[in-house]
Amino acid sequence: MSNATAGGPGRIAGNGAVVARAPAKVNVHLGVGPLRPDGFHELQTVFLAVSLFDTVTVRRSAGLSLEVHGEGAADGAVPTDARNLVWQAAELLARHAGVAADAHLVVDKSIPAAAGLAGGSADAAASLVALDALWGTRATRGDLAALAAQLGSDVPFSLLGGVALGTGRGEQLSPVLARRRWDWVLGIAGEGLSTPTVYGELDSLRAAGELPDGVAAASTEPVLAALRSGPVGALAAALSNDLQAPAVRLRPELREALRAATEAGAAAALVSGSGPTVAALAEDEEGAARLAGELAGGGAFRAVRAVHGPVHGARLVG
Ligand code: ATP
Prior knowledge:
Mean pLDDT: 93
Distance between the termini: 23 Å
Radius of gyration: 19 Å
Strand content: 25-35%
Structural class: alpha+beta
Number of strands: 12
Largest sheet: 8 strands, mixed
Bound molecules: adenosine-5'-triphosphate
């Protein structure tokens, strides 16, 4: 982890606003181990940051206040009070830096909520970077990563971006060099799925003997080797997600959505994280555009987005 400051007070625009953005993620491998005594599962996961971004704009103001716009804002899927991860990020950074938590935050969401794309984590990571600059806290990337891990298991990856192997509860990251670009289509469902509910369903299926215990998580080596250099078929064959079976059990229509993606020409399709977003792997950018067009007309998804990865993690814009 670099010791460079993440932002610094020099990045404040003329109107006093600081803007940062952070990406969604897809887990190209998600191996879920046993439940730990602290209530978390031991994970072996490979994260890929993809080009669907939320933006957080912060300004100085007395006390904390928050506005949320875009995906999930109108239907109340995203809280606008202390339950929002960006609020928690602001309080945590202020405490760490010994400054007053004085800021107005505006979150512009493109990443749907409760979709398995780590939208809340992206917002938290972008807030840390933006507020560090606004308040001039001069936190290092290492400091911000430690704060991110306190906010949620996926927040450190939202900060880092790119490709990374995640262990522990997903917060212990080893960056992976992956030079080639991967094109995907995200198939977004009408209604979100709660991450704890999906883990609970996995535990039930394992306890009932309907799924094998997650003691020996499959090796991440094939997926890492495929990510580094391809070809697309190798990555397609190596994709795996232990949360897919419980997500499909909770949302049986996901089975049809996955089939729709492969029938429309995806090299492979899997549930992203805890779902219900379907991540469909395309041959290339053109293939993704074609696939997106096909799936948009098909009715299996509320919305589709052609994206690519790896992309950078949370950073200042402008
Ligand atoms: P995971 O990181 O577990 O994959 P997810 O991507 O499925 O999560 P999020 O979009 O992060 O889900 O949201 C999960 C829940 O967190 C939401 O239902 C909402 O109640 C709460 N939440 C808190 N802050 C935010 C935020 N900034 N954006 C979206 N949801 C938020």
